[in-house]
Amino acid sequence: MEKYNYFIATCIMILFSITISNAQDKEAKISLTFEKADSLYVCKALVTSEGIPVSEVPVNLSVKRLFSNLPIGDAIATDSIGVATFEVPQDIPSRNGKLIIFANIVDDENYMNTETSGTVNWGMVVVSDNSNVEDRSISAGRDKAPIYFITASLLIISLIWGTLIYAVLQVFKIKRLGKANIE
Amino acid sequence: MSEDINIAESTNKHETFTQEEYMVMKNDLLRPIEKIGKAGKIWIAFLMTVFLAGVFAYYIQETRGKYTTISLRDYTMWGIYISNFLFMVAIGLVGVLMSAILKLTHFEWYRPLSRIGEVIAIGAIMFAGVSIIVAMGRPDRLYNLLLHGRIQSPIVWDVIGISTDLAASLILLFIPLIPSLITCRNNLKNLPKWQLKMYNILSFGWQGTPEQWKILKKTMRILTILLIPLGILICTITAWLFATTLRPEWDSTNFGAYFVSNAFLLSVAVMILATFIFRKAYNLEKYLTEMHFDKLGQVMVLMALIHGYFNINEYLIPAYKMSGLHENHLLSLFIGKDALFYWSVVIFGIIVPFLLPLFPKLRKPIPLTIISVIVLIAGWFRLYLIVIPGLLQPYLPIQDVPESWKHYFPSVVEMTIVAATFAGVLLVVTLFSRFFPIVSVWEVAEGQLEGKEEIINYK
């Protein structure tokens, strides 16, 4: 019997991986709803598979930033009616107030990876106080730097680089003198 | 001919410098370019390996993301990359000390050392720039600093200062090299053709005419004068990068002078180390003599004293007042968790270079080189102590943050990149000395000739 152990173990492993891969083949669909409850921003992700809500599936929520997505808290598993409920922070900065929220399922035992997104008007528009930008102060923008500062620094930089350029020109003068000496 | 030499040697040895003596000297100083030994090849291969390991580490850092590969966090946003940058800027001052200050103050013993100092300075300034780039969060946005940088910003002063100092140092290295290049072309016939052609192109038609000498010396003098304020400027601007940032430790009006004095001390140490290595590796004992070590040892004592003075201003005076802002940081340095570190740096970085070279026996090559290595290591850690504990003592207490934000220890990637910058500097110096005379033949000959009658044809 012992000599068949290896064969049996291999068969079981193959069967197991087939079952697992079939299990992961199940497709899930996420639909997002956004609602305001009292003073909270709540995002609900309903996970269904073949039209039936599924429970105990971890869902990750994230928000689109400049290059990649910023996770909003840890993953939350769906409840008995297939809904994962997230509280969205109210201080996520946005240029126009709009946020693109992503919900996804990653590396689940039963369901394939899936992702969905929705746009909601929950971003905090950041208003910068640029009232002093027009002042010619040390803290002003590049083109509003104090005139004396620009003049003095440019003068010093030009003097130094002028001297360096003069030195390089002298090297060429040495070359000219060498040529003249040969002739 | 040999009779003539004997007569010259027996009668007036110290009063003349003959063409024959010049020829011997020239051969001695050009010999390292002619052949590269097995040890030299192994050394270059080793440096290349460390340098490439650093390039690979940087690739990993940029592709896998800084948060996962390096230990920099919100509080310690500057780590060993920036303390290493400070070290490189500091040893970059060696060119100013060796080829400008000593030259202008007529200390004739500078002659065989000036080019060594200039090459180290160029390597150090180049890799100071590299250290800044590797520390940048978004190096792909570097061009924005050049296109949109504000002239009021200290980082822009630093970019301008470093590029200007590098350009000035390169030109000042090149101009006195012109007569040496023609010497190489005329005397080193066994070299590959491309190398001889390179000497020919770079020598810019040098004929050694009086007019050419006049222009060469005048330009050298102008650049030498310019290099002193430039070198001191980049050290000071680097200090201002800190002094203009809101941290209690850096809130100091003494910082510029403190950095400059530290840079001069480290420059002397690096010069001693380089002189020792070149003396041994290229058999230049006749030119890099014990006298040079004696003089450099004396300079080291002076620089350690000056730096000690600024160190007292930097730490002891604020400690006397012990104001609320400085208290945490100073107590942590004097008796707290950084105390061992701080006092080691004070002892090995200031007291050792001040006390030990006072004894003439310790100003001999081997003991002085050991002292210099200790000073350099302590100097590197002194700059580490300025950057890291300074960042970990912000104005507001650190609370409610992940544990990793509260401490800093460099990751393997950071250490590899820092090691690569050192390998880079050494590679620049080594390769330069393999292709060009590391001791300026004509400048040394000119020094020998000073006040003597013989006129030498430098070719």
Can you give a write-up of this model?
The complex is a heterodimer of chains A (183) and B (459). By secondary structure, chain A is an alpha+beta fold. Chain A folds into two domains: 26-125, Immunoglobulins (Immunoglobulin-like, Sandwich), CATH 2.60.40; 142-182. Chain A is built from two helices and eleven strands, in the order H-E-E-E-E-E-E-E-E-E-E-E-H. Chain A has helices spanning 2-24, 147-182, and strands at 29-37, 40-49, 52-53, 58-64, 69-71, 76-77, 83-88, 93-94, 99-105, 114-120, 124-125. The model of chain A has no long low-confidence stretch (mean pLDDT 88). Chain B has 459 residues and is mainly α. In chain B, 73% of the residues lie in helices and 0% in strands. The two termini of chain B are 19 Å apart. At the A-B interface, helix 2 of A face helix 9 and helix 11 of B.
CATH class of the largest domain in chain A: Mainly Beta
* Biggest sheet layout of chain B: none
Unreliable residue stretches of chain B: 1-15
Give me the Rg of chain B, rounded.
24 Å
Q: What best-fitting shape of chain A do the alpha-carbon axes yield?
A: elongated
The domain tally of chain B reads 1
Q: Tally the helices of chain A.
A: 2
Structural classification of chain A = alpha+beta
Please give the oligomerization state of what you see.
Answer: heterodimer
Q: Largest sheet of chain A, if any?
A: 5 strands, antiparallel
CATH homologous superfamily designation of chain B? Formate dehydrogenase/DMSO reductase domain
What is the C-alpha radius of gyration of chain A, as a whole number of Å?
33 Å
Q: At the first level of CATH, what is the class of chain B? A: Mainly Alpha
**Element string of chain B (H = helix, E = strand):** HHHHHHHHHHHHHHHHHH
Report the largest inter-chain contact. Answer: A-B, 29 and 28 residues
CATH architectural type of the largest domain in chain A: Sandwich
- Average pLDDT score of chain B: 87
* CATH-defined fold name of the largest domain in chain A: Immunoglobulin-like
